[in-house]
Amino acid sequence: MPAPPSPSSPPITISIVSHGQLALVRPLLEQLDRFCRSSTAKVVLTLNIPEPDVLAGLEWGFAVERIENTSPKGFGANHNQAFGHCGTPWFLVLNPDIRLDGDVLAPLVAQAAPDAGLLTPRILEPGHSAPEQHRAVITPLEILTRRKPGYVRPAVPDWIPGLFMLFRSQAYRQIGGFDERFFMYGEDFDICARTQLAGWKLQVGEDLLARHEAQRASRSSRKHLYWHVTSLLKVWTSGAFWRYLRTRSRGT
To answer: Which of 21, 68, 201, 206 makes an SS bond possible with 96, Cβ 3.0 to 4.6 Å?
Structure first.
């Protein structure tokens, strides 16, 4: 178990997983070093598959601790593994293709309400001029109607995507992290639901922005589409989904 941080230590451990994406990770590490060094205790960098080391010889103003998997793990399993190396009050799950134009970490932590268990900035997707709108509970009806006229987005999100999730470590530990039955997709909704069922709130830094530079693989890959569809089925058959839906219907 990592030693507890001193009061003056940087408050965040960052988990980044590379699936042959170190070329994407490099500019992200440079931006974290430039903008967020004072908040970053260390980065736990997981190499999920073997790949050329394009980071060799590079250094940043924080430690980069590597994990090299002997066999590929799913999204949740990788970040749960990284959390075992976290000794800070905050644990950030971050995609390799997130880009920063300024410090979002210190303001997020400063804004955190006492009952906020999971935070995120607004996310700007490629080709869009405005950030992603808040997300409603995923149901078959919601998926069918979200792009139709008259669809109303929630004022407060029911869940946030897994590409930028800043967890209070206490909350992450309390709920047992990600459900590893989800290999890819669906685990972000599930952990948001379980976080809220445990009494924590989701909080969005409405004045903070991060950019997401990737294309959505599920639109072009049959394998990713298969993972996406099967993950939705796992969400809809999970106890957490139905418990969360009941709390929403009661307005609690």
So the answer is: 21
